[in-house]
Amino acid sequence: MQFSIRFFGIKKKLDELFGTPREYGEGPVKPLYDLPAGQTLFRARVLGELTEDAVNTEGAAVLGAPPVNRTQPGRMNVEFIPVFYASFSRETALAELRPSIGDSIAIGRFTTRLPLKVFDFTVFESRAADRKRFVDHSRYDFVSQMQTEISKPVRPHERQREYIPTQIVSEYLQSFFGCDAVIYRSSMQRDQSVDSRNIVILHRENFVGTDDLSVLSYVDWSLKDVIDVKYSIVDGASTIL
Fold first, then answer.
1. Which of 117-121, 124-128, 174-178 is predicted with the least confidence, judged by mean pLDDT?
2. 0.90 exceeded by the pTM?
């Protein structure tokens, strides 16, 4: 129980929400599809106790998913069940860390070794001239609402409670839809000039390597120093009594 799937007894309710995998293959825009081999992904870590020498000699290990005994609960995983969180751009990978000024960030570059079956919650966000083809999808409302839920910012002290629904969804998609990964919009990257999508490759024995079971190849890494953090603000509603 500690090192395998934990959420059970709610499949019927999730079946009612998600429907069948067949429904997501309808229409010109499909949330369920194969991400091709050769896709570049980025994963970042703060250089604290981790040294540049360690990254140079063991980049695939130190920038990859943590071992089972050091796996913390996250947006799409529970404690002790490793997954591989990554982003489609360096900028988004860095933003996900919420770094401070003065931090040095190691950003690893990886590529997929084989096609991955993904559930993409972002597919209906494309800026297309004809959005009717999106809205007409039988699951448009559900997928759009789930994307909002998955991508909402969560403060550190709220994670244990707020991550439970998305942890359940990721297990459900892996167990009953046969998904290898889930794609969702970053809650920390709002710059529309960069790719703000995140991906989580769901639990498996190996993530990075050259053997048949590994789905990723490690390419290289780059070092980035945080010299400024910028905030954009808008006026909020106020009530005067």
1. 124-128
2. no
What does the alpha-carbon distance between residue 167 and residue 71 come to, in Å, rounded to a whole number? 14
Domain range for 179 is 11-225
241 part of a folded domain: no
Per-residue pLDDT tens for 143-171? 888 888 888 877 665 666 678 889 999 99
Long-range contacts from 152-156, C-beta under 8 angstroms, 24+ separation: 152/187, 153/187, 153/188, 154/75, 154/187
8 — pLDDT class (breaks 50, 70, 90)? low
Phi, psi of 120 (to 5 degrees): -105, 105
Q: How many domains does the chain have?
A: 1
Query: Which residue reads 């929400």 in tokens?
Result: 17
Residue 67 lies in a domain: yes
DSSP string, 10-42: -HHHHHHHH--GGGGG-SSS-SEEEEPTT-EEE
| Separation CA 89–CA 148 (nearest Å) | 20
- Separation of alpha carbons 119 and 201, rounded Å: 11
Element (H, E) at 200: strand 197-201
